[in-house]
Design goal:
CATH class of the domain at 131-348: Alpha Beta
Number of helices: 17
Strand content: 5-15%
Structural class: alpha/beta
Helix content: 40-55%
Shape: globular
Order of helices and strands: HHHHEHHHEHEHEHEHEHEEHHHEEHEEEH
Radius of gyration: 22 Å
CATH architecture of the domain at 131-348: 3-Layer(aba) Sandwich
CATH topology of the domain at 131-348: Aspartate Aminotransferase, domain 2
Number of strands: 13
């Protein structure tokens, strides 16, 4: 009750602050990372612990190449309000957001509900552009190449339905693609008559060439598009995106990459990869708000890609000559787009290289622990860090998958996914809010299923 009283008092105080803050001041404070509630010590309803400012100081004190010790990562974990009884290892599906992102989202939601006028909401044009610029810098793109969409699924379908394809053309895809970069191609092919060729890769690839060769063999002079997931959501295998894009580019083939399992976990640069289109969501590895995502469109394709949705603001968007033409999606929750910008600030504060190193390190520790504790265990993704991300997908003949998910959650507090189908097994997705202590507990939980 005392904590709730404190929380209510803060909210009441900040509501009064809203009423006395001009829109111009509000935007400056938000852009500077000092928005009212987000800058306050986290005596919040979530009991998040240390402030974001303190975390930024700790991260800034680390030298380049220093991944940070366990004390640092415990400080990172304090930025989340995860139930202490749970160990969340489900980033491949949905990650919790850190408190700085939550508070910006809540603050802006309250602000709009306090004053829903177009005058008050006019600030979101500025905030959207700030988010676009932050996202572009984060993924190694130019701002004009970035459209803020609702999620990876929407971005994928915009590309699939916006490209010009005809009868006789071929689209080559990975058979491990997410349905929105797999089934969605089949649906369009039914209508327009082009061919979709699904490529399988070895179950236990040893080298990058093992993953490139099947695609090379599938390509013909009729192939117009190569579409693949950067990291498979069902096995955790990571494809060599740079090599695949270079191969496609040499053959005059357009590349479409689903990066839902990469951005936020891996340090990637769109211009270095050399892809034509790239999509991702905020709510997975980026740990951002739900229903915010990225559609990257290489500059030379902005004009040629037809929009799937045309709404209010179309004339101005098309006139800009930028990827904004894919953003006229009707009324949106602009507060989540602004919070998306705070997400990037949070990731940048810790550091992309540091995040990637931490995720790969604890994923390797988890894999190592499970391999020692679970008899007959088989992993779908290789131990090679170049061919894996934060996903650890495994199965054992000693484990009954039919109730593994409920047992892991109800008995051990492990939040994860269990799959059937062609790649049956348990998927654990490690992230920066996981500690080494949790890795050990997850290992014990896996052993407890036997």
């Amino acid at each position: 009750m005392i904590e709730q009283t404190k929380c209510n008092a803060i909210l009441q105080k900040e509501a009064e602050s809203f009423r006395n803050t001009s829109r111009r001041t509000f935007i400056k404070r938000l852009a500077g990372g000092t928005a009212v509630i987000a800058a306050a010590p986290y005596i919040s309803c979530g009991k998040a612990g240390d402030s974001f400012e303190a975390l930024k100081e700790s991260a800034g004190a680390l030298s380049t190449g220093n991944i940070g010790d366990e004390a640092f990562w415990r400080e990172v974990k304090k930025q989340f309000i995860i139930d202490k009884k749970l160990i969340v290892m489900n980033a491949a599906n949905l990650s919790p957001s850190p408190v700085p992102v939550m508070e910006i989202l809540f603050e802006l939601t309250r602000d709009v509900d306090r004053d829903a006028s177009s005058q008050n909401r006019s600030k979101f044009s500025t905030l959207r552009q700030q988010t676009r610029e932050a996202v572009a810098a984060y993924i190694g793109a130019d701002p004009e190449e970035v459209a803020i969409v609702r999620n990876t699924s929407e971005g994928n379908n915009m590309v699939i339905n916006g490209l010009s394809l005809n009868k006789g053309d071929e689209v080559v895809i990975w058979d491990q693609n997410h349905p929105t970069l797999n089934v969605a191609w089949d649906v369009r092919a039914e209508r327009y008559g082009f061919t979709v060729k699904k490529v399988g890769t070895p179950l236990k690839p040893q080298t990058a060439e093992d993953l490139v060769e099947p695609f090379r063999d599938a390509i013909t002079n009729r192939t117009k598009v190569l579409a693949f997931s950067d990291i498979s959501n069902i096995t955790g295998v990571r494809l060599p995106e740079n090599e695949l894009c270079a191969m496609a580019r040499d053959a005059g083939i357009i590349t479409v990459i689903d990066g839902a399992q990469s951005i936020g976990a891996m340090n990637l640069n769109m211009h270095d990869i050399g892809c034509d289109f790239y999509t991702c969501s905020s709510h997975k590895w980026m740990m951002g708000p739900r229903e915010a995502g990225i559609l990257y469109v290489k500059k030379e394709h902005i004009t040629d890609l037809y929009p799937s949705i045309v709404g209010v603001g179309w004339e101005g968007a098309i006139g800009s000559g930028t990827a904004r033409k894919f953003e006229t999606l009707g009324q949106q929750a602009n507060e989540r787009i602004a919070a998306f910008g705070k997400t990037v600030e949070f990731l940048d504060a810790i550091g992309k290289d540091r995040i990637e190193a931490r995720i790969l390190s604890i994923a390797a520790a988890l894999r190592d622990g499970i391999s020692k504790r679970v008899p007959g265990v088989e992993f779908y993704n290789p131990q090679n860090r170049e061919m894996s991300g934060g996903i650890v997908k495994f199965a054992s003949p000693e484990i009954d998958l039919s109730d593994a998910g409920s047992t892991l959650y109800e008995t051990y507090g492990i939040v994860c996914s269990v799959h059937g189908g062609n790649f049956p097994g348990i998927r654990l997705s490690t992230h920066i809010y996981n500690t080494m202590e949790e890795i050990e507990k997850a290992t014990e939980a896996a052993a407890g299923l036997v």
